[in-house]
Amino acid sequence: MSATSLPSSRIADAAVFGRVAVLMGGTSSEREVSLNSGANVLEALTARGVDAFAVDGIPALATLLAQGGCDRVFNVLHGHNGGGEDGVVQGLMTAFGVPYTGSNVLGSALSMDKVRTKQVWLSLGLPTPRYVRLAATADAQDPASATGRMPKAAVHAAAAELGLPVIVKPANEGSSVGVTRVFEDAQLDEAVALAARYDGELLMEQLVVGDELTVGILGQTALPSIRIVPKGAWYDYNAKYIAEDTQYLCPGLEGEAEEEIRRIALAAFNAAGCGGWGRVDVMRDAASGAFFLLEVNTAPGMTSHSLVPKAARQAGLGFEDLCWRILEQTV
C-alpha cells in the first residue's frame, strides 16, 4: 500500500487567519458532541497562535456576522435543526461573504439527506446498500400532524422487499441517533417508532454484515482507513463517544483493498459535492469483500474518540496540525 501523500502546509503565520470563530454547540441532537469537538479545536488553534474564540449556535453567529466580528469560521456544529451540516449555516456565512471550513451549501445539504445522497451515488455507479425510503404520512386522526405515522403495512412490505436483517434510521441524523438493527419482523414497529422521533423521512437499508470502516478526507486526499471493532454488537452512540473498549485499527485494510476503499471514499465525497474535509463511512461485506457506502459526514467529530484525528495521526498529522490544515483551506 502506498503511503498517504499530503500537500505541504501553505501558511506559516497565524495572523493570516485574522479572528476565527469556532462554531460549536447549537440545538441539534448532537449538541454535546459538538461542544466537545469545538473545545478541542479551540484549544488546538489558540495553542498555534490563532486568534480564535467560541461561538455557540447559529443565532449567535448571525449576530457576530452582522457586526463584522470575525474573519472566518471553523465550523464544528454537528447535525441539523440548529446544527451545521445541513447547508443552513453555510448559506448564512456565504451571504455575509465570510469564509468557512468544510463543504458548501450544496454538499452540506445533500450529504445530510441519506436518501438523496444514495440516489446520486447510484446514478454514478458507486456502491451503496439497497434501501427503501419510508415517507411519513399524516395521522389519520389528525391530517395536519407534523410528526406523521408510518403505515405498518408499508414498513413490513419494505422489509420483505429488502430481506431481513435491515437497518432503520432517520434519513437526516448522524452519530447513530435513532438507529436500530432489525433481525426479526417483530422488531420493525419499535424501530420505526424510534426513528420517527426525529424530523424528516426514514430510511430502511439492507444490513451489510462485515467490517465497519471509515475514511477521512482532507482536501483531495483520502486518509488511511480505520476499521472499527466495537466490543458490543455494533458501533452505536455509546461505542462512538462513551465506551473506552472500542478498537480502532488504522490503516483498516492492506494492499489493494486499502487503495480501493480510499478511491471509493474520495469518489463518494466528490460526488456529493463535498469539499474541504469530511469523513465517509463504509461497510465491507464479509462474504464477498465488496464495499458499500453508507454516508458522508461534512463536519466530523473532533473529540478524543473521533476518527478523522486518528487517521490524520497515522498520516503524520497531529491534532493541532490537522486543525491548522483544515483552517488554511479557507484562505
UniProtKB/TrEMBL annotation:
Domain of life: Bacteria
Physiological role: Cell wall formation.
Stated name of the protein: D-alanine--D-alanine ligase
Swiss-Prot/TrEMBL catalytic activity: 2 D-alanine + ATP = D-alanyl-D-alanine + ADP + phosphate + H(+)
Keywords on record: ATP-binding, Cell shape, Cell wall biogenesis/degradation, Cytoplasm, Ligase, Nucleotide-binding, Peptidoglycan synthesis
Organism listed in the record: Pseudoxanthomonas winnipegensis
Single Gene Ontology MF annotation: ligase activity
ATP-grasp domain segment(s): 118-328
Membrane in keyword set: no
Annotated coiled-coil segments of the chain: none
Signal sequence coordinates: none
